[in-house]
Design goal:
153 residues; mainly alpha; 6 helices; globular; transmembrane helix; transmembrane
């Protein structure tokens, strides 16, 4: 029986991509917890739905982290999976909600009406999440990363 060893990459860009994915997942988890805390403040909140939502997010984040470790080990399929997953569905899910709110607002005043410190914090965490995803994608396709994945996959 052969054991798979998850060794660090020899590519600086792959290492940076790995760190960026970890930052993105961490930001996503923090945002999920913050949003859940806000929802729990509402007396009519459905605790079961909130718990299942957190469970699903946790599962997705664990899968993404597992793929990130395979990326770090040099598996080409992991790079492709993260590029497609993070670069399409992941990034779209991060920008659709704020864009929809911006487009549906009847002016700037309506957009900032009801802003709270927690909503500002959630916004900051969302920006960190988006920047980390974009950084991960960028680093994943730099020259030294491409050389690392050449012939592997």
């Amino acid at each position: 029986m052969t054991a798979t060893v998850l060794t660090p990459s020899t590519s600086v860009s792959v290492e940076r991509a790995f760190v960026a994915v970890v930052v993105a997942v961490t930001a996503g988890a923090v945002e999920a917890v913050l949003r859940t805390a806000v929802e729990l403040d509402d007396p009519g909140s459905d605790v079961g739905a909130l718990a299942s939502g957190l469970g699903i997010r946790a599962l997705v984040y664990l899968v993404v982290l597992g793929i990130a470790f395979r990326l770090r080990a040099g598996d080409g399929w992991a790079r492709t999976t993260l590029a497609v997953g993070l670069g399409t569905v992941g990034l779209a899910s991060l920008v659709v909600e704020p864009m929809a709110a911006t487009l549906s607002a009847n002016g700037f005043g309506e957009l900032i009406d009801g802003v709270t410190p927690i909503s500002i914090l959630i916004g900051i965490v969302r920006v960190v999440h988006i920047v980390a995803v974009i950084a991960a994608l960028r680093y994943t396709f730099r020259c030294d990363a491409r050389a690392r994945f050449a012939g592997r996959g």
